[in-house]
From TrEMBL:
It comes from Fusobacterium animalis. The chain crosses the membrane at residues 7-26, 32-51, 67-90, 96-115, 127-146. The lineage of its organism: Bacteria, Fusobacteriati, Fusobacteriota, Fusobacteriia, Fusobacteriales. Keywords: Membrane, Transmembrane, Transmembrane helix. This is Uncharacterized protein.
Length: 152
């Protein structure tokens, strides 16, 4: 039903499911070593998986290296944010609309579908995604800084 010969997204859907289960199980625990292991393990696993998928393409080694480094950094930022800061939630909105990462993921999926179509400006799509995720990170950091300031 969901299979498309050009875009095989649903073939490997179990990988994000495993990551989300690990984040759910250990995300609210107090053990710092579980959080640190998962925070490092998820980006390394995602980078290895991406390397296996991207090595089939015939790209330059420099381009592959840049893609892998950028992906590792983004995965590390996401893991640190979720494991140590929690999921950013906007108060007074019903679930799941109060979860900023859920809303960011929806916008990212919509932008990726626009990206595949040739009629949309790719520069504008990049700008929307960069601004969206920057605002989510800034909101997350500012909420945690307010909590830390209130403790003093």
């Amino acid at each position: 039903m969901f299979k498309n010969k050009e875009y095989n997204f649903f073939n490997n859907i179990y990988i994000p499911a495993i990551i989300l289960i690990l984040l759910y199980l250990f995300g609210n625990k107090g053990e710092i070593y579980f959080k640190a292991a998962i925070t490092i393990g998820i980006p390394i696993g995602a980078t290895i998986y991406l390397f296996k998928k991207i090595s089939v393409l015939k790209l330059e080694k420099k381009k592959i290296r840049n893609i892998l480094i950028l992906t590792f950094i983004f995965e590390l930022i996401f893991s640190i944010q979720i494991m140590f800061f929690g999921i950013p939630i906007i108060p007074y909105l019903p679930a799941p609309f109060n979860n900023l990462i859920f809303l960011g993921a929806i916008v990212t999926i919509v932008c990726s579908s626009f990206w595949r179509k040739k009629e949309y400006d790719k520069g504008l799509i990049k700008l929307i995604l960069i601004i969206l995720w920057s605002l989510i990170f800034l909101y997350q950091i500012s909420i945690n800084l307010i909590k830390i300031k209130e403790m003093w």
